[in-house]
Automatic annotation (TrEMBL):
Keywords: Membrane, Transmembrane, Transmembrane helix. The keyword Membrane applies. The chain crosses the membrane at residues 32-49. Pfam families: TPR_8. This is Tetratricopeptide repeat protein. It comes from Clostridium gelidum.
Length: 262
C-alpha cells in the first residue's frame, strides 16, 4: 500500500463506522466520536504493520523460501519505491545467506541502489558482502574492505568473531585471539534494530547464537584448537530449523579431527 491509499483506507473506515453508529441512532458526544475515530486509525495502522511483520516472522522461523517469495511480492508491489525495494533485496539476501547460497547473496546485493539506502541497510549490505566473500574463500582483501565499511556504521566490537576469522585466514593468529578475547570478555547485548522510518532487520538472535558461534568455531579450528572449536560449533549447531551455519557446524563436529579429542 502506498501512503495515499493508507490514508484513504483510514478515512473510509472512520466514515463507515460513523454511518453504522448513525443508523443505529446511538447518541454520542464529540469527544466519543474522536476517540472512536482515532481507534479506527490506530487499528488500520496496526493491520498494515502486522502484515509487514509476517514476512519477517518467516525469516525468524527459518522459512526462507516462504520469506523470499513474500519479500519479492512486496518488492514487486512497491517497485517505484527505492527504499522499500532496497529493504526487500537486503532481506532476501539475508535469507540466501542463512541458506548458504552465497552467490545468490552477491546477485541480490548487486541490484541494490546503495546511494539511496539508510545506514541500517548500508551496514547490512557491507556485512553480507564481507561474510559471503570470506565464506566462499574468495577475495579476502575485498571482504576485509567491506567489513571495515560495515563497522564504520555500527559498533565494530559486535562483529569481532568475523574479524577474528579474517585474521586467521590471513595467518595473523595473535590478532585473531585478540579479537576473540575482546568479544568474549565484553558484555554482549543482543540487538534488534527496527524503525518505521528506517530498515527492518539488522541484528537478531540468530546472528549471535548461530552465526557468530560458527565463526568462533572456525577460527579455533584454523588455530588448531579442536576442543575450543568443538565448544563453539556445538553452540552453533543448536538451531530449531535448518540453516547453513548449524549444518556446517554439525558436520565439523563429526570430523575425526574433533572426535579424536573427546
Amino acid at each position: 500500500m502506498n501512503k495515499y491509499f493508507k490514508l484513504i483506507l483510514m478515512l473510509l473506515c472512520g466514515a463507515i463506522l460513523g454511518a453504522i453508529l448513525r443508523v443505529s441512532r446511538i447518541h454520542m458526544e464529540l469527544k466519543d466520536w474522536i476517540i472512536i475515530y482515532f481507534g479506527v486509525v490506530i487499528s488500520a495502522l496496526l493491520f498494515v504493520f502486522t502484515r509487514g511483520m509476517n514476512n519477517l516472522n518467516s525469516l525468524y522461523k527459518g522459512e526462507y523460501n516462504k520469506a523470499i517469495e513474500s519479500f519479492k511480492k512486496t518488492m514487486k508491489k512497491h517497485g517505484r519505491n527505492t527504499k522499500i525495494v532496497n529493504a526487500m533485496l537486503y532481506n532476501i539476501s539475508v535469507c540466501h545467506h542463512r541458506k548458504g547460497d552465497f552467490y545468490e547473496v552477491e546477485s541480490c546485493l548487486d541490484k541494490m541502489d546503495l546511494k539511496s539506502c539508510d545506514e541500517n541497510i548500508k551496514w547490512g549490505y557491507f556485512f553480507l558482502r564481507a561474510s559471503s566473500l570470506i565464506l566462499l574463500e574468495e577475495n579476502v582483501h575485498a571482504a576485509i574492505e567491506y567489513y571495515e565499511k560495515a563497522v564504520e556504521l555500527f559498533n565494530p566490537e559486535e562483529a569481532y568473531p568475523i574479524r577474528a576469522y579474517f585474521e586467521t585466514v590471513k595467518g595473523n593468529q595473535k590478532e585473531a585471539l585478540r579479537y576473540i578475547e575482546a568479544y568474549v570478555n565484553k558484555e554482549k547485548r543482543r540487538k534488534v534494530i527496527f524503525s518505521l522510518k528506517k530498515s527492518t532487520l539488522v541484528y537478531d538472535k540468530f546472528t549471535y547464537d548461530i552465526e557468530y558461534n560458527y565463526f568462533l568455531g572456525m577460527t579455533y579450528l584454523k588455530l588448531n584448537e579442536p576442543e575450543l572449536a568443538k565448544e563453539y560449533f556445538s553452540k552453533a549447531s543448536k538451531s530449531q530449523y535448518e540453516n547453513y551455519f548449524s549444518k556446517k557446524a554439525g558436520e565439523y563436529m563429526e570430523k575425526d579431527s574433533l572426535q579424536n579429542n573427546n
